């Protein structure tokens, strides 16, 4: 059974752990073993601290034996003893925090992110530092200073990004679940490309304190998991208002897992909207076909499917890259080699430190975005670019809210294409940016959205389906995703590694 | 052609709070280097700002005290520039929506003499906004050292209109502003501790002209006298440039108070472009009526209003009020003493002269003084009642300043009670008058010197222990009957 | 809206405190030229009377009470410092 452990779901594992048929240490060992076996090829991890992970697992087992008598810790503490991988852009006290950048190659964080604290409170084991596109800027994980992560389904291809390490780790059995961050699709797109579930919560639902900021008004932390139910467990653990994040929203956290189960039993018939703008040119035919098939499934489940329109969709990429780069140009100013971070040698004066350290510390995509963001904010251009983009953002948001007057959720492809070959788009930033076309609008509107497996190409590459929900209605979103997942077995397929 | 100086001041005032502007680590001065930091202050990766309610309250209070209009809504912006003392390499500030607009600072210009009140004027304000302070750089051989204790301290920027026309006015402006801040408990404005910093924008123009001349920004005016001297120097520098037929160049100059000279700062940095944009990490602030009125309820009487009231209500002279009023504690001390003895002028004199003198030589503040209003009031009463002579009163004061004993106790302990009481004196005066009708007649005929004839016997009766002035008063009163 | 040719890379790179190699300059100016040209399509949108969105879910008056909490020890504060002297961060001389 033990080689199966690392591919089990949180629901299965917490049952075994609760019955004392499995210890957290055994589980952690199985995952470590698996990671050592496959990560040389997958490259999902920047680093992991085996001793620290086992110590956390041991502590979990002790908590459980103390709690002996009150029976299973599940479902009251579903994450107790579960190894959850952490994207290397989320702070864990005493561990490296690199954002996959040379700039932070030797940075060790002295504090815990709020989500890290919440995972600890839930009893989970914070496991490893997962690779990403430098500072979460990219859609392929190729922009990492520490090597490219491979797609477990085809090692020649990218896992997507920026949270490629998180998606690949869950897909390859190197973590039971993982945390990523999503600014323009960085959770959903890699989830789609790696055949796992990826959830981007409503903006403000999960604290950003301890998440290295890329674009503050768009960033949101969310889970990668092997099932919609597992995603619900993890979201329940990390969601909630945080006094350390002024943008986190004061709304109490429902029981997502119980809530979606209840909705499933209620037999409620959902109304799904299909935005015609998301099915035009640029959409890969096999991806289109898989999504159409999924729509058929939903019809078969008795859901009402109707066309909706999101007319400003075509402006989303432009507005997004203006807002995101403007915010990042300011957010990344702190990386200057003065208080921390890599400092260039041979700087003659303080000013020199900046120019050289930043030139040496940042990779090309980060530099491109800093330049672009600095430009759109510079005097004389602010109104033409940044201010205008923020107004277009308002229109994009209105489109969605308008659509939600007719439907419960919006169904789209997650990514226009399946996983592409390494290097294929590296030379053409614009082509790479356009890859985010279906995921970006959601961040601009601050909505929750989930990507779930919905098939494979003839070549055996995973295809993902995106469901977009209404603000703070993650329970419904999960229920709708769960309904489809329950009638398909895509999520149970494993890559050959 | 005569010219006039046009001066606008940008004053940065540190706000008195326990924690910093956007994080909860303690704020303070004089702590060991880098002991007042946290992940937010150091701008570690992943940290976020959360605003300090108390700092908002205090800026609103400052705005209300200075007659500003408080913005119903304001937001936060990022001012982007790189400097080693700035942890995020942007400063969270308020660009186009400051918390306060308009308002004014009432100033008092130097009077013709120290004991005469000077002319009062109102210097209009442009705006007051809230922001965060930076760290401190010290320059050593070849390197600079950075201490971030100050970084993140709440900072208020008070911008005046270009409506100041002399170094003396600028000095008066700062003095008045500081007093208001101290009255409001908003800041101690100690320039030595960097709690108040001042930059000046200075230009000159032909008298009567309305257009502004080319302005020079004068920096590092880090003491009240440096502000006055630095501005005076810059104004005369510009005048001589113009007199020599030259034109004033737009520049930033650095004033060195030690040498009394200023030099042009040519910064390596090219033209500033701060790329202001709304900070996505912070939500806007809305100030409703109830919030404002709650703060208004805690606003003190303004210093100059208090001074006018003291002069009117107690008719205490300017020489005394100008000493009492700048210090709110001293003013309260005075009002309490005046209430207890009903003799405001006398109480004011003892406090403004003797008390301050003793506090000064003992190098302690009013807070540590053992002499309280009751002591002063008691002393005034003993003196007025003739229980002690003014010579003895001085001794009593010094004694009670040391011992803290009430004046009655000191008089008793030291036997300073003048043995002539008021009624004794009156009896002796009456007897002296009765014994010398001729001199009474002379006096009533207008021969004033005749009064001296009665004094000898009274003094003999009092064995010299009588206050001649008081004897004179009593005799005249009795003779007037 | 500004044309891509307005992109003065040297000025912008200076504002951003980034040294660019000649190769980077060349590559960026064409790549960013394309991106800015693509962004120009925002001009088509009629945004008259539209409020800008700064926050997806705007709330106001989010603050903390003024109650101090423990911060970092000096050691933790300086642990990641590239160069330190005693309790201070060291940078090459700041040229005023
Ligand atoms: Mg200023
Ligand atoms: Zn300022």
Q: For this entry, what is the oligomeric state of its chains?
A: heterotrimer
Work out the number of β strands of chain B: 18
Strand count of chain A = 11
For the sheet with most strands of chain B, the description reads: 10 strands, mixed
Secondary structure class of chain B reads: alpha+beta
General shape of chain B = elongated
Quick check: average pLDDT of chain A?
Answer: 96
The most extensive interface, with participating residues per chain, is:
A-C, 75 and 55 residues
> Quick check: average pLDDT of chain B?
94
Tell me about the largest β-sheet of chain A.
11 strands, mixed
- How would you sum up the global shape of chain A? globular
Give a list of the ligands: magnesium ion, zinc ion
Terminal residue distance of chain B: 70 Å
The H/E string of chain A reads: HHHEHEHEHEHEEHHEHEHHHHEHHEEH
Assign the structural class of chain A, choosing from mainly alpha, mainly beta, alpha/beta, alpha+beta, or little secondary structure.
Answer: alpha/beta
Whole-angstrom Rg of chain A: 21 Å
Strand content of chain B: 15-25%
Strand content of chain A: 5-15%
Q: Number of helix segments of chain B?
A: 15
Amount of helix of chain B? 25-40%
Notes on the protein architecture:
The complex is a heterotrimer of chains A (497), B (481) and C (96). Chain A is α/β, with parallel strands linked by helices and 497 residues long. Chain A is built from 17 helices and eleven strands. Chain A has an eleven-stranded mixed sheet, sandwiched between helices. In chain A, helix 8 (228-238) packs antiparallel against helix 17, helix 9 (256-266) crosses helix 17 and helix 11 crosses helix 14. Chain A is globular and about 65 Å long. In chain B, helix 7 packs parallel to helix 9 (373-384) and helix 12 packs across helix 15 (468-480). Chain B has 15 helices and 18 strands. The radius of gyration of chain B is 30 Å and the shape is elongated. In chain B, strand 15 (251-256) and strand 16 (261-264) form a beta hairpin. The longest helix of chain B has 20 residues, at 224-243. Chain B has helices at residues 53-65, 167-183, 224-243, 289-297, 303-314, 318-324, 328-341, 344-362, 373-384, 390-403, 407-414, 422-434, 437-444, 452-461, 468-480; strands at residues 3-14, 51-52, 69-70, 73-74, 77-80, 90-93, 100-101, 104-108, 120-132, 136-140, 143-147, 154-160, 196-206, 216-219, 251-256, 261-264, 277-278, 285-286. With 96 residues, chain C is an alpha+beta fold. Chain C has three helices and three strands, in the order H-H-E-H-E-E. In chain C, strand 2 (84-85) and strand 3 form a beta hairpin. The model of chain C has no long low-confidence stretch (mean pLDDT 91). Chains in contact: A-B, A-C, B-C. Strand 11 (143-147) of chain B pairs antiparallel with strand 3 of chain C. The complex binds magnesium ion and zinc ion (ZN). Zinc ion is lined by residues 12, 131, 157 of chain B. Zinc ion binds next to loops of chain B.
């Amino acid at each position: 059974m033990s080689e199966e452990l690392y591919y089990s779901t949180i629901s299965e594992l917490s049952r075994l752990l609760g019955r004392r048929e499995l210890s957290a240490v055994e589980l952690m060992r199985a995952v470590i073993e698996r990671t050592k076996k496959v990560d040389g090829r997958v490259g999902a991890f920047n680093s992991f601290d085996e001793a620290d992970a086992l110590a956390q697992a041991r502590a979990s087992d002790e908590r459980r034996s103390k709690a002996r008598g009150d029976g299973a810790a599940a479902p009251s503490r579903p994450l107790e003893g579960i190894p959850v991988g952490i994207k290397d852009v989320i702070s864990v006290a005493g561990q490296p925090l690199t954002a996959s950048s040379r700039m932070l190659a030797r940075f060790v964080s002295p504090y815990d992110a709020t989500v890290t604290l919440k995972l600890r409170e839930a009893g989970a084991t914070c496991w490893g530092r997962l690779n990403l596109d430098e500072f979460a800027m990219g859609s392929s994980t190729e922009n990492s200073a520490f090597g490219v992560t491979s797609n477990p389904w085809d090692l020649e291809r990218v896992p997507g990004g920026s949270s490629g390490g998180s998606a690949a780790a869950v897909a390859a059995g190197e973590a039971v679940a993982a945390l990523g961050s999503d600014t323009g699709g960085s959770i959903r797109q890699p989830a789609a490309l790696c055949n796992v579930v990826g959830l981007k919560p409503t903006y403000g639902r999960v604290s950003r304190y301890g998440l290295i900021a890329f674009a503050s008004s768009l960033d949101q932390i969310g889970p990668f998991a092997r099932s919609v139910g597992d995603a619900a467990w993890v979201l329940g653990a990390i969601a909630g208002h945080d006094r350390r994040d002024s943008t986190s929203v004061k709304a109490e956290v429902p029981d997502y897992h119980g809530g979606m189960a209840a909705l499933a039993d209620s037999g409620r018939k959902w109304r799904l909207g299909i935005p015609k703008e998301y099915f035009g040119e640029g959409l890969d035919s096999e991806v289109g076909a898989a999504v159409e098939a999924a729509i058929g499934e939903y019809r078969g489940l008795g859901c009402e499917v109707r066309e909706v329109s999101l007319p400003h969709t075509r402006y989303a990429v432009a507005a997004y890259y203006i807002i995101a780069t403007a915010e990042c140009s300011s957010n990344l100013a702190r990386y200057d080699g003065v208080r921390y971070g890599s400092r260039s040698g041979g700087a003659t004066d303080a000013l020199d430190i900046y120019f050289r350290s930043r030139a040496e510390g940042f990779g090309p995509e980060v530099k491109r975005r800093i330049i672009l963001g600095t430009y759109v904010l510079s005097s004389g251009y602010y109104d033409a670019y940044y201010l205008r983009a923020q107004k277009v953002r308002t229109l994009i948001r209105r489109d969605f809210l308008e659509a939600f007057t007719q439907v419960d959720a919006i169904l789209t492809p997650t990514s226009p294409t399946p996983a592409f070959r390494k290097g294929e788009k590296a030379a053409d930033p614009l082509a790479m940016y356009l890859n985010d076309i279906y995921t970006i609008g959601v961040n601009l509107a601050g909505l929750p959205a989930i990507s779930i497996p919905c098939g494979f190409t003839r070549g055996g590459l995973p295809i993902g389906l995106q469901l977009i929900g209404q603000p703070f209605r993650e329970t419904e979103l999960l229920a709708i995703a769960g309904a489809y997942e329950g009638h398909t077995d895509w999520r149970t397929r494993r890559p050959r590694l | 052609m005569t010219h006039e100086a046009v001066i606008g001041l940008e004053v940065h005032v540190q706000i008195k709070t326990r924690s910093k502007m956007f994080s909860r680590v303690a704020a303070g001065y004089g702590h060991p280097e880098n002991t007042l930091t946290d992940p937010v202050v150091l701008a570690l990766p992943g940290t976020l700002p959360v605003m300090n309610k108390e700092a908002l309250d205090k800026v609103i209070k400052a705005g209300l005290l200075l007659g500003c209009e408080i913005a119903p809504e304001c937001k936060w912006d990022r001012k982007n520039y790189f400097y080693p003392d700035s942890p995020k390499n942007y400063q969270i500030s308020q660009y186009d929506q400051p918390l306060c607009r308009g308002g004014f600072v009432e100033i008092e210009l130097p009077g013709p003499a120290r004991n005469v009140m000077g002319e009062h004027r109102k210097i209009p304000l442009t705006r007051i906004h809230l922001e965060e302070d930076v760290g401190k750089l010290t320059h050593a051989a070849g390197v600079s050292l950075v201490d971030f204790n100050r970084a993140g301290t709440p900072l208020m920027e008070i911008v005046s209109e270009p409506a100041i026309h002399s170094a003396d006015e600028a000095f008066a402006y700062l003095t008045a502003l500081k007093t208001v801040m101290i009255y409001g408990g908003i800041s101690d404005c100690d320039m030595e501790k960097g709690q108040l910093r001042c930059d000046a924008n200075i230009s000159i123009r032909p008298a009567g002209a309305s257009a502004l001349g080319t302005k020079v920004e004068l920096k590092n005016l880090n003491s009240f006298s440096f502000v006055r001297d630095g501005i005076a120097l810059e104004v005369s520098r510009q005048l001589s440039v113009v007199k020599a037929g030259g034109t004033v160049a737009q520049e930033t100059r650095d004033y060195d108070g030690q040498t009394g000279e200023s030099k042009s700062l040519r910064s390596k940095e090219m033209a500033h472009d701060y790329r202001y944009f709304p900070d996505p990490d912070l939500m806007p602030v809305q100030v409703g009526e109830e919030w404002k009125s709650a703060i208004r309820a805690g606003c003190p009487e303004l210093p100059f209003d208090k001074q006018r009231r003291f002069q009117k209500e107690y008719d205490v002279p300017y020489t005394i009020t100008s000493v009492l009023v700048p210090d709110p504690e001293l003013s309260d001390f005075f009002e309490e003493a005046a209430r207890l003895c009903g003799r405001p002028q006398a109480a004011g004199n003892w406090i403004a002269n003797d008390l301050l003198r003793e506090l000064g030589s003992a190098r302690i503040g009013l807070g540590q003084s053992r002499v309280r209003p009751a002591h002063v009031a008691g002393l005034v009463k003993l003196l007025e009642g003739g229980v002690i002579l003014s010579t003895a009163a001085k001794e009593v004061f010094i004694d009670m300043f040391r011992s803290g004993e009430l004046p009655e106790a000191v008089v008793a302990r030291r036997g300073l009670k003048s043995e002539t009481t008021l009624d004794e004196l009156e009896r002796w005066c009456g007897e002296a008058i009765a014994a010398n009708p001729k001199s009474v007649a002379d006096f009533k005929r207008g021969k004033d010197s005749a009064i001296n004839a009665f004094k000898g016997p009274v003094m003999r009766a009092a064995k010299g222990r009588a206050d001649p002035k008081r004897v004179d008063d009593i005799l005249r009163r009795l003779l007037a009957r | 809206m500004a044309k891509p040719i307005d992109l003065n890379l040297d000025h912008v790179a200076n504002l951003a405190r980034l040294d660019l190699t000649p190769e980077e300059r060349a590559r960026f100016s064409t790549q960013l030229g394309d991106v800015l040209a693509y962004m120009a399509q925002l001009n088509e949108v009629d945004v008259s009377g539209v409020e800008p969105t700064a926050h997806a879910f705007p709330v106001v008056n989010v603050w903390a009470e003024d109650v101090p909490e423990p911060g970092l020890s000096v050691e933790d504060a300086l642990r990641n410092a590239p160069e330190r002297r005693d309790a201070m961060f060291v940078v090459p001389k700041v040229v005023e």
